[in-house]
Design brief:
This protein has helices at residues 15-22, 75-86, 92-95, 107-120, 132-140, 155-172, 180-194, 201-210, 243-249, 282-290, 309-319, 388-401; strands spanning 2-7, 28-31, 40-44, 47-51, 64-67, 72-73, 96-99, 103-104, 197-199, 215-218, 256-264, 267-269, 303-305, 307-308, 323-327, 337-346, 349-351, 363-371, 405-409, 417-419. With 420 residues, the protein is of the alpha/beta class. It has a ten-stranded mixed sheet, sandwiched between helices. Strands 14, 16, 17 and 18 form a four-stranded mixed sheet that branches. It has a two-stranded antiparallel sheet with strand order 3-4. It binds guanosine-5'-diphosphate, 6-O-phosphoryl inosine monophosphate (IMO) and magnesium ion. Residues 7, 10-12, 37-40, 125-128, 130, 132-133, 220-222, 225, 236, 270-271, 296 line the site of 6-O-phosphoryl inosine monophosphate (IMO).
Length: 420
């Protein structure tokens, strides 16, 4: 069977930490979408490390890690990540596998990303500029080159054709950038990629499932950044939701068992776009400071605000979430008062639904206030020791989203998690 861990907000919910925590219970950890726009932070032997494309099970010696067909893969970033992982004594050649159907991010995808954002001006998406949008456009436009093509003798010819196509688009944008250094790195990284385990991902994973092996699918980004159900157009270019597991790995829907949704105890967003509960004040600044809310991929300050239960209930429904993991609860330890958003006022009318065009309507969040717990929770290891005010806060969330919070994460460390 396949279980899933994915984000229920706008990304950076702490998915990497949670996957790393659960990884020992699984045989395979698989990424099914996204690319180097993701930044998943893990603490290994007390040392911080950030993974972008390699699944977060890589630090467990006996776990197989699969990069699925739904991912867009940047070979340059991958090579760097592999070097980092190797410095922890992990042999990626042994436990990293890549689907031959995985699409490759080429240097001109990154240039196109930049050109597109520049052309958008004020209405830019706030992309990580890793080439994600252009790479997925080439996938759906049926132009992409894929990892399996690396073994084909026409690879370089196809690459040149694609590059020429991209050059025309860049000319249309009047965008000039010397990509020769990127290209040199890219070709070096391709040589490295050729030495890794390239497999037929769909048979690889289904054969393991048939043998009774347990798979954990690791989401990137968050549901509110999903291309279909997120705050379009301020989204990423893939399906970040549980349905993306089927198309991004080649597993059938009935194989999916538990869907663990990860949410922060508050909310953040990086990049542009609607964020109803955003706090543009000292409280928002406090959340950013205490929560160290700076992007793991770009270092940009994350926008911070209260937890949004309207959006959270929506993302639980879309994903069929069976259990919720609440991270960064400790960040709220010193707050006297907390707020949870229970409804939106849209054009003067109250609603508990996420509107179609979140970016075009004015949303006023309606809050319910809670007393903070004013306790250092970071060393708590059992549910009974959690402060009563935290339990009340969680109980209300359970009721509202109609899905149980089953774990509370109370610090970035591997051991800082309390099963409820
Ligand atoms: P991801 O992209 O969903 O994997 O999340 P990121 O790694 O981008 O951001 C989450 C950040 O919060 C990282 O710096 C983690 O080390 C940190 N983190 C995760 N869980 C907790 C927690 O429970 N408490 C605190 N204080 N930090 C956490
Ligand atoms: P993880 O996996 C937070 C955001 C970008 C931008 C939008 C589109 O670490 O949670 P893209 O680069 O995909 O064109 O950017 O999506 N974004 C993320 N925000 N966490 C991420 O990944 C993100 N990946 C993309 O900031 O607003
Ligand atoms: Mg992240």
């Amino acid at each position: 069977m396949v279980d899933v861990i994915l984000g229920l907000q706008w990304g950076d919910e702490g998915k990497g930490k949670i996957v790393d925590y659960f990884a020992p219970q699984y045989d395979i950890i698989a990424r099914f979408q996204g690319g180097p726009n993701a930044g998943h932070t893990l603490y290994v032997e007390g040392k911080k490390t950030v993974l972008h494309q390699i699944p977060s099970g890589i630090f467990h010696q006996n776990t197989i890690n699969l990069i699925g067909n739904g991912v867009v893969l940047d070979p340059v970033t991958l090579k760097r990540e592999c070097d980092t992982v190797a410095s922890f004594g992990i042999d990626v050649k042994k436990n990293l596998f890549i689907s031959e159907r995985t699409n490759i991010i080429v240097p001109t995808h990154r240039a196109l990303d930049k050109a597109s954002e520049l052309a958008k001006g004020e209405s830019k998406i706030g992309s990580t500029l890793k080439g994600i949008g252009p790479a997925y456009m080439d996938k759906t436009g049926r132009n992409a080159i894929r990892v399996g093509d690396l073994l084909d003798e026409s690879f370089t010819t196809n690459y040149i054709k694609l590059r020429l196509k991209h050059q025309k688009l860049l000319d249309n944008f009047h965008f000039i950038e010397d990509i020769s250094a990127w290209e040199e790195e890219f070709f070096e990284a391709l040589e490295f990629l050729r030495t890794l385990n390239i497999v037929n991902g769909e048979y690889f994973i289904n054969n393991h499932i048939s043998q009774g092996k347990k798979v954990l699918a690791e989401g990137a980004q968050g549901t509110m950044l999903d291309i279909d159900f997120g705050t379009f157009p301020f989204v990423t270019s893939s399906n970040t939701i549980s349905a993306g597991v089927c198309t991004g790995l080649g597993v059938a829907p009935q194989k999916i068992n538990q869907v663990l949704g990860v949410t922060k105890a508050y909310c953040t967003r990086v990049g542009s776009g609607p964020f109803p509960t955003e706090l543009d004040d000292a409280t928002g600044e406090e959340l950013r400071k205490i929560g160290s809310e700076f992007g793991a991929t770009t270092g940009r300050p994350r926008r911070c605000g209260w937890i949004d239960l309207v959006a959270l209930k929506y993302t639980c429904i879309i994903n069929g979430v069976t259990q919720v993991v609440m991270t960064k609860a400790d960040v709220l330890d010193s707050f006297e008062e907390l707020n949870v958003c229970t409804a939106y006022k849209v054009n003067g009318e109250l609603t508990q639904e996420v509107p179609y065009q979140m970016s075009k309507v004015k949303i006023e969040p309606i809050y319910k206030g809670y007393k903070g717990w004013n306790t250092d929770t970071t060393k708590i290891t059992d549910a009974a020791s959690l402060p009563a005010n935290m339990s009340t806060y969680i109980e209300f969330i359970n009721q509202y989203i109609n899905t149980p919070v089953k774990y509370v994460s109370n610090g970035p460390g591997r051991e800082q998690i309390v099963p409820l």
